[in-house]
Fold each of these.
Amino acid sequence: MILTSCNKDEKIQTASLEQQKLDYQSRQIDLEKQKLAIEKEKISFEKQKDSLNKVAEEKEKERVAANNRVTKRSSTRSSSSGSSGGGGGSSSGSTASNSGSSGSTGTTATQKKGWSSAAKGTVIGTVGGAAAGAIISRKNPGLGAVIGGVAGGATGYTIGRANDRKTGRVQK
């Protein structure tokens, strides 16, 4: 009877080891599936990235082609006007108007980049005024900082706005 009971424990242990091996293998298979899914996601991401790059390149080509068409049209107009006898003055006028319109479009695009002088002046004035107000008002530095910040911000905005008007960023 003792031999039989010892033999059962060995059978249970071997069955348990087999079960553990199967569990380990199934976990390994799950990990491999996850790795495969990750690789598929990477590939699809790269495809999307490539397609976005292609779209951007096509847009750039279209923009360059449109610029070339505008340039060719303006040069065609100026050469045809220049070849007629009395149209010499009008050709320079049309060329100037074309370059003027494209130049104003370019300056508008570049002017909108970055902070305006009014915004910069407001920030600088607010910080400077708050610091000065806190230093000057020794009894109540918090109130002095608030009052100084408001006054400095208003002054900075006014000065910056005037500078924006001078540079042409803002019309009255």
Note: Residues 1-113 form one domain.
Amino acid sequence: MAYIKNIGIIVKLLRKEVSSFQKPMSTEISEKTHDPFKVLVSCILSLRTRDTITYPISNRLFAVADTPKKIKDLPLKKLQEIIRPVNYYKTKSRRIKEISKALLENYHGNVPNTFDELMSFKGVGRKTANIVMVYGFGSRHHIPVDTHVHRIPNRLGWVKTKTPEQTEEALKQIIPQKYWSDINDLLVMHGQNICQPISPWCSKCLIKAYCKRIGVKKSR
């Protein structure tokens, strides 16, 4: 298997670069709570919503209801009132209540620890399932792929893919498994702060020597 050349050096440089950046919400909640259910719920809330909004809203919700039973028993209007600042809050409130009910009825109130079972819930896609596996259960066999983790490997020249699903499979072929559980955090923080979609901060980038800058028309 042909792994990315200098991947160990690149990961080391990224770890140094992001050490002072705000961690992604899923990581913060995982480290704070060690609770797969909270990781799952916060991830659903985060879809199409910035972490700066989702994180405080997640904490507000968990202060009121932090278990499947408490969320199931919470009136829908109250739940919607709490999470209103996130995008698509009405749809997300219904999904969260449906999942909470299913967890109580089929899993004794526990989040299942397999990818396929997580994918069986309505409203849970590959990204969410992978995030729960990595940040909820500490799995080293999954790579969550969001917009940053899709964009940056294409920009670096690691992959040539059109969808996050394609990127996920491609990264599994070229990144040693020991780095899988770290790559999401590293690329998300790198993408939020340095390798931004438009006009990335190439002058500040610690891995620019290893980047092909594919598609970059303007940089700072």
Note: The chain has a mean pLDDT of 95.
